[in-house]
Design the sequence.
């Protein structure tokens, strides 16, 4: 009845490969994004561990942009995430905030395509932000640091 990576049709083909024509599996496990063709070809009992275009949401800059855009139309429903800035695109606005605010926000700066906490930095000043951006050398996202995040069962 299907299985983890490498069994029951799973195993990193990213939406293509031999498993796409097989119907003898229930679960397709992959570490890659899947395409729309893979999703639409599923039988009712077959499941994927990803959904089509998931990488768009995993891309921090794209996700921040979408959340910001939607929150303009639905401010009460989309107030659950911290203020976010795409860098370098919104760097001028963020620097202005940090330099003119009486108590500038503490920022957590993340590489756009990073994961698992790799290469994140905490910045408390405009100078620290500039240094962090130079070290990253890529597009990144700065978010207002949340001291006490909402956690499930304290974790």
Sequence:
């Amino acid at each position: 009845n299907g299985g983890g990576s490498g069994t029951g049709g799973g195993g990193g083909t990213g939406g293509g490969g031999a498993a796409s024509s097989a119907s003898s599996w229930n679960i397709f496990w992959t570490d890659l994004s899947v395409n729309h063709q893979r999703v639409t070809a599923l039988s009712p009992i077959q499941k994927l561990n990803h959904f089509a275009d998931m990488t768009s949401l995993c891309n921090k800059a794209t996700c921040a942009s979408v959340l910001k855009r939607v929150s303009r139309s639905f401010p009460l429903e989309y107030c659950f995430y911290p203020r976010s800035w795409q860098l370098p695109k919104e760097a001028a606005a963020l620097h202005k905030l940090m330099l003119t605010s009486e108590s500038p926000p503490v920022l957590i700066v993340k590489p756009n395509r990073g994961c698992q906490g790799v290469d994140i930095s905490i910045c408390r000043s405009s100078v620290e932000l500039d240094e962090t951006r130079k070290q990253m050398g890529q597009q990144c996202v700065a978010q207002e640091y949340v001291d006490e995040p909402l956690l499930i069962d304290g974790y």
